[in-house]
Every structure is written in structure tokens, then in C-alpha cells.
């Protein structure tokens, strides 16, 4: 006769096994979407592209009227560094990193002397599967603290999006009363920009 404790053990094992079977396919699907998105950008490594503001521009935004260049400059199996040049301002680099749960986007801001800006390495992690062409990065807690410390309360609801298609890469920032978008033409690589500040 089988003891009650043994039956409980078998039942528990069966439940755990079933849970693993249910969770594994979903996790694998998420990983595929993030990986495909990451690889689509990685294929552009070493190239630079010109962009233009397609939404949310204004005369005093620091972007309008200036040459906008993205450069997929540094690429490893788990991280991409993409400087975003705005005219003669070479302070911004997007850092896209693979994590255990998806992708992370951070904004590395430097001064001309290479030192970090007070507002730097802000961004967030993906919270859903996204698609092979689009990923969203809601602001994380660490960035919210940084924004508040530096008087940028309007940024605490930021959501960044990146979209990549056959001919276009789009960078988008969304929050209340703000929808800023820059689209880069991937069909026409341009001359490589200078080294971003603080990088070699």
C-alpha cells in the first residue's frame, strides 16, 4: 500500500512538471522575439544612418534643424552601443543589452571631457514579448529616482520605443503631452561620425 506522504510527493512532482511544461514554451517565445529584434540591429554594425524628426519636434528642443546620425558602433553577443549624434553634440549613446528576461535600454550621456552627465544611464527593461520589429522600454525605478533628483519630474512616466523595419529605424519617446520620434533611413549609409564623448 502506498503511503499518503508518497502520494503527496508524486502529486507535487506532477504539478511542478506541468507548470514547467506550461511556462517553458511562453518563455522560449519571448526570447525569440527579443533575440530577433537584437539581431536585426546587430546586422547594421559598423554603419551609420541619417535621421529626421517625424513627430514632436520644436524649435527649442535641441534636435530640430541639426544633423541627426545613429551609428551602430560596438556590437557583442549581448550588448549593442549605438551613439546618437545631434549636430556637434556627441554626448548620447544608446546601450541595448540582453538580460535574462528580455532587453534593456539605457542612455549613456557624457560631457565633452568624457565624464558622465548627472542624468545618465537612464532607461528601462522590456516587460512583454514585443515583436521582432518593435520593443518598448518603460522607465525603471532607478531612472525615476535620477530624474526626480535632477528636477525632471516630467520624465518619470517615460516609455521609449525602438522599431526596425527593412528601410527604417525609429526611436520614439512617449509620455504625457510628449510624443517625440526620429526616423533613420537604413537604405543609405552615411559617413561615420566622430567618436562619441567618453568612448574610445
From TrEMBL:
It comes from the Bacteria. Keywords: Signal. Residues 1-28 form the signal peptide. This is Secreted protein. It comes from Shewanella inventionis.
Amino acid at each position: 500500500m502506498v503511503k499518503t506522504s508518497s502520494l503527496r510527493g508524486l502529486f507535487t512532482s506532477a504539478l511542478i512538471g506541468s507548470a514547467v511544461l506550461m511556462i517553458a514554451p511562453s518563455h522560449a517565445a519571448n526570447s525569440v522575439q527579443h533575440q530577433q529584434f537584437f539581431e536585426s540591429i546587430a546586422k547594421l554594425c559598423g554603419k551609420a544612418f541619417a535621421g529626421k524628426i517625424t513627430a514632436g519636434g520644436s524649435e527649442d528642443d535641441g534636435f530640430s534643424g541639426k544633423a541627426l546620425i545613429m551609428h551602430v558602433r560596438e556590437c557583442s553577443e549581448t550588448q549593442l552601443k549605438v551613439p546618437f549624434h545631434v549636430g556637434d553634440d556627441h554626448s548620447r549613446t544608446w546601450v541595448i543589452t540582453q538580460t535574462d528576461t528580455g532587453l534593456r535600454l539605457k542612455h549613456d550621456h557624457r560631457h565633452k571631457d568624457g565624464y558622465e552627465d548627472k542624468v545618465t544611464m537612464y532607461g528601462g527593461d522590456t516587460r512583454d514579448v514585443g515583436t521582432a520589429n518593435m520593443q518598448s522600454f518603460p522607465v525603471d525605478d532607478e531612472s525615476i529616482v535620477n530624474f526626480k533628483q535632477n528636477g525632471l519630474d516630467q520624465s518619470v512616466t517615460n516609455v521609449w520605443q525602438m522599431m526596425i523595419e527593412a528601410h527604417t529605424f525609429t526611436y520614439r519617446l512617449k509620455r504625457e503631452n510628449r510624443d517625440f520620434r526620429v526616423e533613420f533611413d537604413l537604405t543609405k549609409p552615411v559617413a561615420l561620425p566622430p567618436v562619441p564623448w567618453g568612448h574610445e
